[in-house]
């Protein structure tokens, strides 16, 4: 990965040990060790230690995410750890990091994004097919309302079924024949060394990706200027600009539960293009639009797109979903 910042922080405590907080999942640890290595390379005189914590999301594995709402499910314990000074910063999959952070914590850095797209992974009996040639009634595993709504729109003849658990568990259930195919993030599969299972990378015409998908977000205490400056050294500015626009868009639209919202962003020099979609869970209604502007206005662009989609009926779709989730 290339980094766009040169390391030049002011380290006031040269022997300080920096404690990195991470979830215990295999993917989380791979990501955290990568961050640790990047920092250790740039700051050989500092010590970086990894401290693992279980989050609520690691414990509740049998309830559909859409029902419990996933706000902070994978981040809360780590955030408490930072606020109580047990750890100094936390590494998250950016898409699991809520768009509003607790008082006293900030998104310190965003690292370079992997391919943000969704992938189709198939049972071996379908190796000769693509998503548009899977048979009628094929059972597709996904626990994301965003993937569900968009794919249902294009492929109403499939059966969609929730799938949770870590990636190994999900793959085992697929291979056992419980599903015909799964939709998973390309980035997670690649980081876990399962890139070979990616059967088809879904084009954005079929599935816009989740806000922040494929990037890591590093959170720390707002007043820890030393750690903040260390983390800036591994930030990837183009990814951060895209992430700021995407997160502002989601922040402006969401209403307290998992929502079928997708995005895609592109950079062309200093111009940022953000496309967003809001879809109903049945895939029947969707509103989609694009905004474009200077990267320095990334967050305003996100807000602008949210307002545009609201005028086109996004609020109605979202309110309906929020009511349904609360009733169940
Ligand atoms: N919601 C779970 C989750 N959180 C982060 C990733 C990995 C991909 C990423 O970093 O965006 C995944 C798995 C998936 O969506 O398939």
TrEMBL record:
Comment on bound cofactor: Binds 1 dipyrromethane group covalently.
Record keyword Transferase present: yes
Catalytic activity reported: 4 porphobilinogen + H2O = hydroxymethylbilane + 4 NH4(+)
Domain of life of the organism encoding this protein: Bacteria
Coiled-coil region(s): none
Residues carrying S-(dipyrrolylmethanemethyl)cysteine: 257
Pfam families on file: Porphobil_deam (PF01379), Porphobil_deamC (PF03900)
GO cellular component, one term: cytoplasm
Gene3D superfamilies with a match to the protein in the record: Periplasmic binding protein-like II, Porphobilinogen deaminase, C-terminal domain
Keywords carried by this UniProt record: Porphyrin biosynthesis, Transferase
Cofactor(s) the record lists: dipyrromethane
EC number of this enzyme: 2.5.1.61
GO aspect biological process, one term: protoporphyrinogen IX biosynthetic process
InterPro entries found in the cross-reference section: HemC, Porphobilin_deaminase_cofac_BS, Porphobilin_deaminase_N, Porphobilinogen_deaminase_C, Porphobilinogen_deaminase_C_sf
Function as written in the Swiss-Prot or TrEMBL entry: Tetrapolymerization of the monopyrrole PBG into the hydroxymethylbilane pre-uroporphyrinogen in several discrete steps.
Protein name: Porphobilinogen deaminase
Organism: Brasilonema sennae CENA114
